UniProtKB/TrEMBL annotation:
Organism field: Paenibacillus lactis 154
Record domain Pseudouridine synthase RsuA/RluA-like: where: 92-242
Protein role: Responsible for synthesis of pseudouridine from uracil.
NCBIfam families per record: rluA_subfam
InterPro entries in the cross-refs: PsdUridine_synth_cat_dom_sf, PsdUridine_synth_RluC/D, PsdUridine_synth_RsuA/RluA, RluA_PseudoU_synthase
Protein name: Pseudouridine synthase
CDD domains named in the record: PseudoU_synth_RluA_like
SUPFAM superfamilies xref list: Pseudouridine synthase (SSF55120)
Amino acid sequence: MSYQGSWVRRGEWLEMTPGKALTGQADREEAAGRWLLDTVGMPEKLYRKLRQEQGIRWRGDRLSLVLFPYREYGIEPRWHELDVLYEDEFCLVVNKPAGMSVHPADPASREITLNHAVAAYYETAGIRAAVRHIHRLDKDTTGPVLYAKNEYAQLKLDEAMRKKEIVRIYAAIVQGRVGDDLKTIDLPIGKDRHHSGRRRVSLTGQPAITHIISSEIYPSTSLLHVSLETGRTHQIRVHLSHMGHPLLGDTMYGGRAIRLGRQALHGERLHFSHPFTGEELEIHAPWPEDLTALRRQFAHE
C-alpha cells in the first residue's frame, strides 16, 4: 500500500488532494481514516497519534497531515564530508566511508560517526529531523546506509526490514577460488565466548542466511556478490570464513593482511520501496578507490 497521487510539503504538513472518493462522503473524517490506513498504508500507531494530536485536517478538498514535525537530532552535530546517494523529504541514503562507525558505541567518545555527520548535514541544510538509521554497516565496510527523516518513514522502513523487503547487495573479495556449488550459507551465528568482539558459527546462535548471487573467479581469489537474508553482526565475514574463504584483509576471521588495511567488503546496492509513494528504488554506491585497485590487482595477477 502506498500513495500514488501528488503531494506537497508545507512546513510540518504534507498536503494531498484525495479526490471525490473522500470529499463526497457524508463523514469525511471517518472516510479519511479508512483511506489512510487501507489505501495509503499509514501505520496505525502513527494514525492514532495524529488523530489524538489534531495532526489530520481538511482544508477544502485538501487533506493535510503533520508528517514533518520539528525534532531534535538526538545526537551532537559534528561535521564530516558526506557522500549523499539519494535524498527526498522521507529518506536519506549516505555512502559510508571506511573507518567510520554508523553510531557511537560509547556516548563519551569524541569519535565522529556517520550519525554525527548526518546531524551536521541536517543542521547545515536547515532540516529539523531526528537522526534515525534503518540498518548498519561494520566500521570498516563501505557502502550505503539508509536513514528515515520522519516517523512515518521510520515505521514503514523498520517494518520492511523485519519483513526482509530491503535488499542489500555486497561485493566481497575473498581468498581462494570459490566453487559454483556454493550458493547459500545457512548456518546460525553466535558470540565467540573466547573473544568479546568476534562472532562464530554456533548451533546455539541466531539463524543466519547468506546468498551468493554471482562470482568472478581469479587465479587465487574470488569476487563474490552477496545478499543477506538476515542481518547478524559480521554475518558475511563469519560465513565466508567458516566456508574456507575469509575476506582479504579480515585478520579477525582468518583473512591475510593486505595493504588495504581493512576487510575487502563493500555495500554495492540498496533496494527498497519508498515508504510513502511505494516507488521501487535501487541505490548504487560506487566502489571506493582502494577496493577498485585491489580488484584490478588480483584480476590481472
